Amino acid sequence: MSEHRNDSFDELVRRALHAEADRIDPADALPEIRARAHAQRRPAARRPWLLTAGVATVGTAAAIGAFTVLPNLNNPGNTANDGDAVAGSGTTSTSAVPTTGAGTPAPSKTLPSVAPSVAAPEQSVHNAVVPVYWLGQQIGATKKSTARLYRTWAKVSGHPAEEAVRIMTTKQPTDPDYFSVWRGAALNAVTRTNDKVTVDFKQLPKATLDADVAAVAAQQLVYTVQGALNDDSVPVQITQGGQAVPKLFGQVDTSMPLGREQATNVQALVWIDSPDQDAVTGDRVTVSGVANAFEATVNYQATNVKTRETKKSFTTSGQGQSFSPYSFQLTLSPGTWQINVYLVSPADGRVTDTDSKSIVVK
């Protein structure tokens, strides 16, 4: 009986298993199994390859860098422009290190490119207005020989600095109060390099001057050249026949280029820019100029040469104790007028500096 009951139980189990199996819808699991197996193998297989490739890349870059750096280290003639041509404008290349002639790395300040110092003439202009400086006696000076620089304007065509110097050395200023000690000078050429302007003369003045006047006269040339070039930072080398001159006017050492002296040391403390000397105007006249005045006070007086009619007052410049512009207006009757602009000493009231212009009012 017992065997019969076991057979019946086994039969029931088989039937239940078949019934459960019939409810299962089998799917093809092979692709999923392969995907899982591939995913598990991938990290172990790829990492060694990446490391190998990375080392190879670094090695290649190092080799290329070595071939890039070594020629620059061995060739001091290379400049930063060479690097810029590769790195692009405004970038800095660190793969090339310029060296000095001894092979020592040069300081970083030598990196910017500097073009060869080849003397070149100025660019030509047409009807350009340039400043020309003259000497004028300083009124109220403690020394009789003291002179100051006064500025006028000239229209030129050609090389502006050359033309301005020719006017300064060969022409008479229109204002009779101005003068030049450069008579007898014959200009050759004005050329420029990166670091200086050379004014070469066929003949320099032979006069020997008082030391103070000679110093201001040298600055007359410097101010005129720099003004025509619109660059007050470039030094001026004075030569004769291409050779440096040890003493200009018997006083000034010109073996080295001359820089621009401070304006307060050489320039007139007040001058009239407009109207020009002998200008013909209407009855309303605007007078303008530059002054370095105590408390910005600029005094003026206009006098009719024939009738002696006088108008006297003062105006103010833009700023006291520094060179700054001023202007004022006058209403004048017909005739020739003398306009004087002057500064007064705050200590004793005496006139210390002045400039004047004669005009004709129609």
What's this model, at a glance?
This protein has 362 residues and is of the alpha+beta class.
Would you write up a description of this structure?
Helices cover 30% and strands 30% of the residues. The chain has 362 residues and is α+β, with helices and mostly antiparallel strands. The strands form four sheets. Strands 1-5-6-7-8 form a five-stranded mixed β-sheet. A five-stranded mixed β-sheet has the order 10-16-15-12-13, with no helix packed on it. Helix 4 packs antiparallel against helix 5. It starts with a helix and ends with a strand.
Amino- and carboxy-terminal Cα gap: 156 Å
**Quaternary class:** single chain
Strand content: 25-35%
Question: Pairing-aware structural class of the strands and helices?
Answer: alpha+beta
Main sheet: strand order: 1-5-6-7-8
Low-confidence spans? 1-6, 20-27, 37-116
Tell me how many strands there are.
16
Q: What are the secondary-structure elements, in order, as H or E? A: HHHEEEHEEEHEEHEEEEEEEE
The overall average pLDDT, rounded, is 76
Rg computed from alpha carbons, rounded to a whole number of angstroms: 44 Å
Instruction: Please estimate the helix content.
Output: 25-40%
Shape: globular
Output the number of helix runs.
Answer: 6
Sheet of most strands: 5 strands, mixed
List keywords for this structure.
globular; disordered N terminus; alpha+beta; five-stranded mixed beta sheet; single chain; 30% strand; 362 residues
Chart the SSEs and their pairings:
Blueprint: H1 2-23, H2 30-73, H3 80-87, E1 120-121, E2 125-137, E3 147-158, H4 160-170, E4 178-179, E5 186-192, E6 197-203, H5 211-229, E7 236-240, E8 243-244, H6 263-266, E9 270-274, E10 280-281, E11 284-291, E12 297-304, E13 310-316, E14 324-331, E15 335-344, E16 351-361
Parallel strand pairs: 6-7, 10-16
Antiparallel strand pairs: 1-5, 2-3, 2-4, 5-6, 7-8, 9-11, 11-14, 12-13, 12-15, 15-16
Helix pairs in contact: 4-5
